[in-house]
What does this fold into?
Amino acid sequence: MEKIPAVETAKSLLTEAVTWSVMKWLREKKTVRKIADQANAALDQMDQAVKERWPDDVRAGYDVLLKQSTKNRSRDRNDSDRSPGDGQIFVIAKKVKEADDQAHEARMDAEETFEMAEKRLSTALAREGCRKAIRSWELHEKAIRKAEALIPQK
It folds into this structure.
């Protein structure tokens, strides 16, 4: 996977932000939010582009997993609980889905930490949010690499 400039910029800024004072945080929090949002959008875009290059059977396996994980899943158990075609492909798609879920949970944890930091004006929480955001981007990159492995080589 190629490095994504928006993510590298965000990682650099948030690594620096861990040392900021309260006043610096108050001045720069909008910039941090903007840069973090750009990194998340770039990762989401890369993730989507990779998954669009998957073969149909891999995409079908992943889609079944998505349907199974939604809370409002259909009551038609025959459709949502079956695995498509090749069991090996389904197992591989499941590993990608698990990596995606882990990255998403880390992203939500970072978001919550930043929200608490802002409400409490806590630099300690803001620093923790920075570390969590960087970790979430690393997990998302890892998930994208796993997804890329499912693209057929020409």
